Amino acid sequence: MKRFRFPLKPVAVLRSHQEVRAREAFAAAVHQYVQAEEDLSRTRVRMAALEAALFSERKATFRASEAALLFADYRRECDAEVQTERRVIALREEMQKRREEYIEAHRKLEIVERLETKARAVHRHECDREEQAEFDDFAGRRRLNSLTSAQ
Q: What structural domains does the chain harbor?
């Protein structure tokens, strides 16, 4: 019985490496996106605290210098929120791009794996057929030997 040799093995190895790299890039993109979402959440919490402080100051005596500083802080937080939202949107797009690349790399790897599975099945079938032919030949010779020795 001859040994199985898959001619596309180098392609399978290459695609496997590409799939691993694409998976790692996708995982890194997901991590960056999650961190950006957390930054946005923290920024919104700070903004809510500043808004509460701004509105609570209106109920008490009005101090223009404190209100101006508080409003300046609020504007900086608003700008930071806008920048963080833009970053989240960009990272979400990057994550989607990396996901598509990973899916494509995985699909290409699966194609080669299916080809190898089919080639192994064909090889196994051929080996079984050769083995059966050998058994038939052996049985035929044995039968012939038993007929010649009986005479």
A: 9-119 (1.10.287.1700)
Question: What is the Cα–Cα distance from 25 to 85, expressed in whole angstroms?
Answer: 22
The neighbour count for residue 14, using CB atoms within 10 Å, is 14
pLDDT in tens, 3-15: 888 899 999 999 9
Give the H/E segment covering residue 137. Answer: helix 64-150
Task: Look at residues 3, 19, 25 and name the one whose alpha carbon lies nearest to residue 111.
Answer: 19
Residues ≥6 apart with Cβ < 8 Å to 105 = 15, 18, 19, 21, 22, 23
C-alpha–C-alpha distance, residues 90 and 96, integer Å: 10
- Grouping H, G, I as helix, E, B as strand and the rest as coil, residue 100 is helix
Type of residue found at 17: H
Residue 70 pLDDT greater than 90, yes or no: no
Between the CA of residue 9 and those of 33, 53, 121, what are the distances in Å? 36, 66, 16
CB 78, CB 23: distance < 8 Å: no
What average pLDDT is seen over the chain?
Answer: 89
Q: What is the DSSP letter of 60?
A: S
